[in-house]
Amino acid sequence: MLHPGDDGFDEAGEGWLRTVTHRPAAVMIATCAEDVVEAVRFAVKEGRPVAVQSTGHGVSVPADDAVLINTSRMRHLTVDPAAGTARIGAGLRWEDVIAATAPHGLAPLCGSSGGVGVMGFLTGGGLPLTCRTHGFAAGHVRSLDIVTADGQVRTVSDSREPELFRAARGGKGNVGIVVSAEIVLVPSRTIYGGLLAFPGLRAAEVLHAYGDWTRVQPDTVSSSVTLLCFPDVPQLPAEFRGRSVVQVRVIDTGDGSSAGPLRALGPESDTFGAMPYAGITGIHQDPKGPVTSHLRSALLRDLDGDAVETLVANMVAPFNVELRQLGGALDRPASHAVSTQGAAFHLWVRMPAGAEEQAATLLERLRPWDTGAMLPGFLFDADADPARVRRAYSATDYARLVAVKRRYDPANVFRINHNIPPGDEII
Ligand SMILES: Cc1cc2nc3c(=O)[nH]c(=O)nc-3n(C[C@H](O)[C@H](O)[C@H](O)COP(=O)(O)OP(=O)(O)OC[C@H]3O[C@@H](n4cnc5c(N)ncnc54)[C@H](O)[C@@H]3O)c2cc1C
Question: Ligand 1: which residue has its CA nearest to atom 35?
């Protein structure tokens, strides 16, 4: 256990997103489940809350006066090629799992960034890049080893403590600290994917065409569109300064014919083509970080003509907004605590620090299309209020999560997160 002033103490709390600074009372840099158990028991004895951080991509509230468990050294990983599964440690990032599984012709259901941590992703439900083909990544978890607030390590699955297993796949760190997961992999066969870029001046035309195109795509096609406007400032490389761009990303696990109508629009660059599944995180080109961005999200019921016009009218630098098409396999019944609640698109607003008002204005103007719900995996520091956290779950899921929280963490030891208070009233 590290205490303030010890070597490595300050660094252990630093992460990808630098909008939150932690001032914990103690830090455990865990290498195994026993370290996590020791830290949880220590925190309970001292009457302190427990915080967990792997990469810091999904920060919520400062871990002040808490016992912070840094899992980044829990890097165990075994692949069972015959079963098509992997057992992965809590400190891994998706890029680690991709590298270890690719030689076996297998791949995990990861998201847009290889740098995101596996357990933050899976406990938030995990919206993979192939979401319309495969559904949430949480639905491809076979079992979890989880340390609960009583300091026990439990192996949970559909047949062992199924309610806890369900809650941990969507409820983020609220019900315990996951130390290891057994995940089902997919074949890393050839798929079709890439990015088509258009000048920002064509944003309305491209976005209208994209909206129409998404309406006729089969479940084998997942996609997103990002609208980017860069300010004309000397700190930026010349090729970005004052420019705006529309990027459409397509991932097709079918025959690759989907991109035809988008290509017919005449993009200024186009990387769409055959590629191995394992190359999937190269498509989005997410920043390696660290960053101080202001991140907000929403779920939209539609991307109709008026929504397109509203988005385009608000495209003023600095602007970085992504829309991901939902539906497909995401709408099938599943046994985890995450759902899109019927939304058609996920909206992710990624503004630089200082542009908070612009982000709020955009969300306000998009309110007619906003379902009011959110995805737990896309809650960040602006969403730490439990009333906002509640929006990330259907009423049924939230009630079940509160029941699990009451049973396994009645004292709310795990509260340095997007918190589900055990005493929360269930309507
Ligand atoms: C650039 C970028 C791209 C992204 N792309 C996608 C995407 O394509 N799809 C998607 O679904 N999400 C995506 N996300 C969201 C991401 O999945 C969440 O922010 C996730 O929480 C990050 O996990 P982490 O471990 O990297 O971050 P951390 O900040 O270390 O952890 C975030 C939270 O996850 C929980 N957590 C972490 N580890 C554990 C554990 N061992 N046990 C229990 N709880 C734990 C805790 O609540 C913790 O506060 C993206 C985020 C970023 C910044």
Answer: 120
Q: Which run of H or E residues covers position 211?
A: helix 203-214
Q: How far is CA 257 from CA 128, 135, 250, 327, 333, in A?
A: 21, 21, 11, 20, 28
pTM: 0.97
User: What does DSSP assign to residue 254?
Assistant: S
The answer, yes or no, to whether any atom of ligand 1 lies below 6 A from the CB of 293, is no
Tell me: the pLDDT tens digits for 181-237? 999 999 998 999 999 999 999 999 999 999 999 999 999 999 999 999 999 998 888
Measured CA angle at 113 (ends 327, 138), to 5 deg: 50
- What are the residue ranges of helices labelled H in 13-149? 33-46, 94-101, 118-123, 131-134
- Is ligand 1 within 6 A of the CB of residue 377? yes
Per-residue pLDDT tens digits for 263-288: 999 999 999 999 998 899 999 988 88
Q: Which structural domains are found in the chain, ordered by start?
A: 9-70 (3.30.43.10), 77-187 (3.30.465.10), 190-383 (3.40.462.20)
- Asked if 168 contacts 365 with a C-beta cutoff of 8 angstroms, the reply is no
Question: Residues 145, 182: contact at Cβ < 8 Å?
Answer: no
Q: Which residues contact 396 (CB under 8 A, 6 or more apart)?
A: none
Residue 255 Cα, ligand 1 centroid: separation in angstroms? 32
The pLDDT-based confidence of 427 (bands split at 50, 70, 90) is low
Per-residue confidence (pLDDT) for residue 236, from 0 to 100: 86
Cβ atoms < 10 Å from Cβ of 394: 15
In angstroms, how far is CA 358 from the centroid of its own chain? 23
